[in-house]
Amino acid sequence: MRPVSRLATLAVALVVAGDLAPAQAAPDAPVPADAAGEKSWAFSASAFAYFLPDEDDYAQPTFTADRDWLHLEARYNYEDRKTGSVWLGYNFSFGDEVAFEVTPILGVVLGETDGVAPGYKLALGWRTLDFSSESEYVFDASDSSDNFFYTWSELGWSPADWLRLGLVVQRTRAYQSELEIQRGFLIGIGYKSVSFTTYVFNPDANPPTVVLGVSLGFD
């Protein structure tokens, strides 16, 4: 892929994130009560630009909306290229010193791949350490042999408020890879509700797969 094409893909990712506005890598927590004692909406949007060694680069946007227990989500290019999915979930959170958040979700997948998908999003936080994971199992509507388990998980450490380092693994069918489970590392920087993260998958490959992510969030 030519450099101009790669830059165009990244530009699309950033524009999508800016237009949709807000997101975060970990599952969203239920929103605290406001001064009137009512729950308010919280929104997030993220865009990931995939730079692939042997395929066309592409962008993967996600948008979420949460209010109290309710979780709504929309994704594109996640389960497959030119494929969208919409999700409904139920938020749970508990814990003080160790914060735990989990959201069972159910989705409908439409596009190059059609089907239904149960899954979950979860996050754990303790001091400067965090773990997040989102997984789903897609039941393909046209061919059960194409059923597939997707997952993306991160283990992070934040030595400073603005810096996050960690490890990442994923299993996907959105593009081809010699590895069933891809693994790598991440480096992220953030300020308030905005964050930028670079993921390098299969760092021992030549070349590796690089993913650039931007996320925004607001209430």
List descriptors.
1 helix; twelve-stranded antiparallel barrel; mainly beta; 219 residues; Porin
Walkthrough of the structure:
The chain is mainly beta and 219 residues long. It has one domain: Porin, CATH 2.40.160.40. It has 1 helix and 13 strands. The protein has one helix at residues 3-20, and strands at 42-51, 58-67, 70-76, 83-90, 92-94, 98-111, 115-126, 129-140, 148-160, 163-171, 182-191, 194-201, 209-218. The protein has a 12-stranded antiparallel β-barrel with strand order 1-2-3-4-6-7-8-9-10-11-12-13. A hairpin with a 7-residue loop joins strand 12 and strand 13. Residues 1-36 have low confidence and may be disordered.
Short structural summary:
The protein is mainly β and 219 residues long. It is 8% helix and 58% strand. It has one helix spanning 3-20, and strands at 42-51, 58-67, 70-76, 83-90, 92-94, 98-111, 115-126, 129-140, 148-160, 163-171, 182-191, 194-201, 209-218.
Shape: globular
Our estimate of the beta-strand percent is over 45%
CATH superfamily (homologous) name: monomeric porin ompg
Count of helical regions: 1
* Mean pLDDT score: 87
Contiguous uncertain segments of 5+ residues: 1-36
Reconstruct the topology from this structure:
Blueprint: H1 3-20, E1 42-51, E2 58-67, E3 70-76, E4 83-90, E5 92-94, E6 98-111, E7 115-126, E8 129-140, E9 148-160, E10 163-171, E11 182-191, E12 194-201, E13 209-218
Antiparallel strand pairs: 1-2, 1-13, 2-3, 3-4, 4-6, 5-6, 6-7, 7-8, 8-9, 9-10, 10-11, 11-12, 12-13
